[in-house]
Sequence to fold (698 residues):
Amino acid sequence: MGQPKMNRVLKSISIHHKLALLAALFWALLFGKANAFPPTQSPNESLVYSHEQLQAFKRFDDEQPARAAGRSFLCVPLFRSFNLQLAADVQLAADETLAVTGDHPSLGAWSLDKALPMRALNKQRSKWFLRQWICASHRVYYRYLIYALNAAGERVLRQWEAQQVPRMLQTYEAYRAPGVDLYGEAHARAVGGGVQLERGWLQREYVIELKFCWPEHIYLSGYNSKATQLRLKLSSLSLLNDARIEVSRFGYNRSSFRAQRQQGVDYSAGSILIYRISQSLDVANAFRLNIYNKQQQLPLGEIYIWPNQLQGSRGILQLPIVSNLQQLVGELTLPYLIIKPLSRRTSGFSLRVSFQRYWPSNWPTLDVGQRGLGDNSIADYLAVARAKGDMVQLDVQLTRDYVPIVWQGFGFYSSELPSSQSIVNELELRYVLIRELSYAQLKSSRVFLRKRWTLQEHTQLNVRDIKEHRRLFPKLAEVYAALPPTLGLIVEVKWPQLMANGKLESMQTLNKNLYVDSIIETTARYGCGRPLIFASFDADICSMLRLKQSAFPVLFISAGRTDIWQQYMDLRTQSYLQALNFAQSAELLGTALHVQNFMQQRQQRRLLELSLDLPQALFVWGSELSSAQLQDQFRALDVSGLIYEQMDRVGPSSWKRASLFAAPQLQEIFGQQCVAIGNSTTMPNAKPTKPTVWPKMR
Ligand SMILES: *[C@@H]1O[C@H](CO)[C@@H](O)[C@H](O)[C@H]1NC(C)=O
Ligand SMILES: *[C@@H]1O[C@H](CO)[C@@H](O)[C@H](O)[C@H]1NC(C)=O
Ligand SMILES: *[C@@H]1O[C@H](CO)[C@@H](O)[C@H](O)[C@H]1NC(C)=O
Fold:
């Protein structure tokens, strides 16, 4: 057997006539004594792998004896070339590098820090190359990603190929000449045309958003701020240019964040513009915002933002605008948001699987029980499952001691009088907010609820009996434990907003980052492994949920334009189109809009297509949907889901055979959310993933 030739054989990829040699090697590995292999005893040192490489290949013997039983033990090592090309519109920043990661230990086992950097082959840095040992005898999964190094030399994930199932190299393909992979396009036939690139979740950096999302922000003396076209430019005052500034200017299908252009970005009152600044956790920069008159290119003034003005999780900046001559010429009022990585978590998430925008467009229109049947109790949610509903929507908020509980309002009527004493006059009752009470206080409160015109006492439902499925204020963790994993959930996170008239919807003083973290952590620990979507009426909560994790998709819920409620100040909430733009800007799964936005039948299809073509998921909600006829209309138009109350009366139980998520394959897919969120490294009983290429229907 021509041993010395083997070196060349293994490196060569297209080797039909030498396959026999490989087979020979394979047999040698199988039947040869293991001790024939260590480097010291090899016939020729130069063709034997280093000790580390051997260790890497041995994974199936050592780590997964149970699994290995059904598969080949042995790694037939082989050099694999990874050739990657970037599309013309992908522009790398100077500090960015391409890397490849995969399930094999020699590809970094899905860890960002161990991903293998590639080598740029041309000056434009659009072609990349890497050669790496892999096992020819195993199916290999891999993805490409872009990272940058921060000042401490740590890797920051900028973007990754986030198809739910990664790229795959079948065993028989290992010997084929490798083609050229196009960055982002892992499955040409998958939803969205196959290109799917996602921003990395926050790990070693935090994000500041400066939000021009109210009707007016800039007052300039001598100017009609509504009529003046402005140009804004934000810059970091740090010498080390370590703040990454991006901007999103809302417009249909062009709302994504992108680097700020040299000359700045146009702005006029009433439009939406969001600056996003990403910085390392230990960095706090000062910024300058320059304002120009767009038509005349005249500098109108500048604003300085100092780090100590950006406190907590959110706030409103009120800053003077000064001219070149250091004169006060106006004022800027600007809300800001600070998004930090999940607290109490240093690692856990991996690049193995992503659900950030996982929603195959060929799924049927789902039936979602709004607050269960309408009452937000566990019994209600279970009734939706019995009525063959696919999902339930529920409302989550936190008590003063950060316990996530389910309740639809921001508070309820209560009384300090002992329960033996009956209440005769409504004036004896006080409206208490959930956020003012600890969980223990909440559970010992008397509860009065408004039913029609009167307040009725419901304290008997506020008792701590875990088995009582009708009880009020169930903990989110208890809800997760009580519901079958075949029932999908839309977990709506409640947060009061500023109304258009300048009043607050309700008070909230909890730290917004910890608030969101607490809900994500509870969900990771008790709720993963079922179809689960986060949602909120508050756009900032959506951005936070999106940037802190990669396991659960996020929906923006909005009333849009209706005559039912007062509007919020935030322009992102005020219309259907801006909701779509926000979902694109924040890279959400999609939106859930009130049915009144689509009541004009002639326009219905066109309006819905605006969302579905992007492509985004679109759920429709509202009490009007308790008409079977209207439901049928929306089903015919392929909306992603209908969210309505009283599914037991108007729902699908008479015609649907089973809920979508009863399918075992889908159970298996959503089981991987536990892996994505880092609560589990393997799915018990799950077979290795197969790429599910859902045919594209739209
Ligand atoms: C090992 O291989 C190298 C080149 O691949 C060759 O120069 C050397 O003579 C070989 N040694 C033995 C002991 O065969
Ligand atoms: C998450 O991990 C914890 C601790 O390992 C475990 O007790 C829990 O069952 C896991 N939850 C899920 C939903 O898998
Ligand atoms: C959105 O923009 C992209 C890129 O510019 C384009 O390919 C796509 O067709 C557009 N989609 C719609 C629905 O306009």
Remarks:
- The longest strand covers residues 328-339.
- Residues 366-405+469-671 form a domain with the TIM Barrel fold (CATH 3.20.20.190).
- Residues 512-527 form the longest helix (16 residues).
- The CA atoms of residues 84 and 181 lie 5 Å apart.
